[in-house]
Predict the structure.
Amino acid sequence: MRVLLYSLNYTPELTGIGKYTGEMAEWLAAQGARVTVVTAAPYYPAWRVAPPYRTDSYQSQTLRGVNIVRCPLYVPRRVTGLKRIAHLATFALTSLPVLLWQALWQRPDVIVVVEPPLFAAPAAWVAARLSGAKSWLHVQDFEVDAAFELGLLPKGRVRRYVHGVERWLMRRFDRATTISTRMLDRLVAKGVEVTRSGLFPNWVDLERIRPIATRPDAEEITVLYSGTMGLKQGLETVIHAAALLHQAGEKRLKFVLCGDGIAKGKLQRAAAGVPTVSFRPLVPADRLNELLNEADIHVLPQRADAEDLVFPSKLTNMLASGRPVVATANPGTQIATLLERCGLAVPPEDAHALAAALRALADDPHRRQELGLRARETAEELWDKHAVLAAAFEPYMAAAAVRAAHRSAAADAPLRARESQRVAATR
């Protein structure tokens, strides 16, 4: 099977889309697929590119069986709505000739484009049409909806026009998938036929992320957030909750915020007077399990205006580590419904409710242990890496196997004909 994967973000990015796109490509290569990735230099979530990668030239490499072409990219130092558009547009423009060349040369069985950015989707659809490949749009984040809801783009006529273009484009793909059931509902509401849409959730490597030990009688309770520090996360609510607990004399709860992103500086300034809050950088992938197991409680903040527009991928690893999760999510949202079994959900942007929930779990070690066991069970049931990826790519693998068998039979036909003629001549 030949797969052309088109994604702005890719490994060695440690969080978000890049992490999952990288794992997807490497898993496919391990199954024997020929995988080519058209992407950019790694920059997320710090919005900085570190050597040996460059933003001003094309670079090629082969990494763990995957052929990678990295395209030039504008990475703004200060991210604004317009600069973000320019950032996405440069990738769409610089990657276009590479994508078309790879499609026509490789003749892939399927071209998978990952959104964001939606800017890249038209090129993927054209490349699939020209090469005869199946076109597959995978939505990790409804970036258009989120940009309007978060105030990054103006509403009104602009919003109606952009949504119209988005709907038209999404309906062109042979297949469109997304990562949660609520996001799948939104995909269908945008006009994608049910028969061509599907659920393709983010996954977790259950062998790599696993519970190590619990500390039910620890004097200090570690509340951990690990991931991107951006606009959608609402991490300021965590800082506020930590401040409320500190002011109330609660000294057991220690908050560790591990990550990077455009909001990190603002968060550090907000936490300057709260001694129970500390910041750490992201850890390498081989140390992630160790970090996640430092937590007694994971915290998953999210702004109300981003609910069900995204599904935080970090939740899979949180639950797989066997720890309870406290999230800020309204009743009825997918995260709140999921955590009815293995965690707690409080209203978004309500620091008092978050502080109360964290204190309640700190006071009840047995409940923390019980919720942690259920968290691990949930991860095993829903997000096993091998099961998720095998189910998503099974149709393409099966079709590729049939085509390979037909090609083999066609190649053997002349040989069989000559052998039949030889046998007939000897009679």
In short: The CA atoms of residues 211 and 325 lie 14 Å apart. The domain at 221-376 is CATH 3.40.50.2000 (Rossmann fold). The chain has a mean pLDDT of 91. The first strand starts at residue 2 and ends at 6.
